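Continuing the batch. This is chain 6 of the set; chains 1 through 5 are on the previous pages. Same settings as before, nothing changed between runs. Recording input and output for traceability.
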Amino acid sequence: MGEIDPRLNASSNIDFRLQRMLASYSKEDPPPNRVKPVPVQVIRRIFAVASTMVDPHFTCIADMIGLAFFFLLRPGEYANSPSDSSPFELRDVQLFRGQQRLNLAVASDAELLTATFSSLTFRDQKNGVKGEVVGLGHSGDPFLSPTKILARRVLHIRSHTADTHIPLCKYFTATSSKCIVPRDITKSLRDAVTFLGPSLGFLPSDVTARCLRAAGANALLCSNVDPDIIRLLGRWKSDEMLRYLHLQAAPLMRDFSRRMLAGGNFTLIPNQMVPVY
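Output for chain 6:
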């Protein structure tokens, strides 16, 4: 109509306030192409490969994948990524043997590796209540268990530094240290999906680091866990009444990791893009 576009500022760019508003809307909307929730057999494959290697890079990738699966984490919470969330650090971890909370600085390796319950404390993570503690019990699997994963990360980090602000996604070699990033996670997942083949019902390109949050939720859903509890564990926005359920109640959470492993084996109905085998 010949009028000046009211969305633009003097520099002919979208006004900063509108940019922030639109960015906020985009975070609320689901992505147009949702990633596939990988089944637990993909994660088991990654752990099997990592167990044959001595490279701490691959061990850390496997542990971060397992941690994201069990705790329904976003990539920015378990990998070094420019996002609204910060990755969990060593100081956020707690390990228990029965009712005894272990001192992570002085507990023996055996004590840490035989922990029966573990937790993460939310400090700067997106949609997490500040200071809230989310805990999970031992899954029963000797490797793929939140307690085993966190114990391994504690042992690895404390053998190189006493700094408790080290991210769990950081690993150390003899000469350097480095953090796992989302593309490392994505590559490992796609390699495992490629190895397992189209019987899974989806393609390697269908999975990224973002799919682990959905994978854990889907495993819980397949295990008949109440959807409201799943939304609470995953910190998805929902009815305010969900805040009355308290994640720090250990009996509520103690059995979830075992049930996730039991319910996480599944395949998807393939679309036309998945080759016939």
